[in-house]
Specification:
Elements: E1 4-9, H1 21-24, H2 29-42, E2 46-51, H3 55-68, E3 71-75, H4 84-92, E4 97-101, E5 123-126, H5 131-144
Parallel strand pairs: 1-2, 1-3, 3-4, 4-5
Helix pairs in contact: 2-5, 3-4
The structure holds 1,3,4-trihydroxy-5-OXO-cyclohexanecarboxylic acid.
1,3,4-trihydroxy-5-OXO-cyclohexanecarboxylic acid (DQA) binds next to loops.
Length: 149
Amino acid sequence: MNNKIIIINGPNLNLLGEREQSQYGTITYTELKQNCINESKKLGLIAEFAQSNIEGEIVNTIQNSIKKFDGIIINAAAFTHTSIAIRDALSIFKKPIIELHISNIYKREEFRHKSLISDIVTGGIFGLGSDGYILAIISMQKLLNNENK
Ligand code: DQA
């Protein structure tokens, strides 16, 4: 059954609720994690929620996901704009990948306009707040069941 997904979060997302509420809202990392796990369960998915501030740890998590998970949802945070290593690791994962950003990166500083992963992922969501995670989970469930239109 294709129902195991991992939601990977990059640097500083552990401080959601405390950091830049105007960009990222008031939801805490713990609340977001619980919402994602609940929504996944409702849709018949088993979700793991991961976060690291360390680029190499994220690369390791992606590599380890190849055998363990059927899909990846990733908010690589600042590494989106800088990490060829994360891009290369994602390229090795031959199953659905959804890129996610809480804020609209194209409305912000110019250095955030470039994502090094957008052209190798299945699809992306940005600028819809933390709801984007729920939308990503719904889309991932459809992708894994070949129900996406
Ligand atoms: C972010 C956008 C990035 O530019 C930023 O570095 C983040 C969060 C978002 O979710 O909007 O840390 O990925």
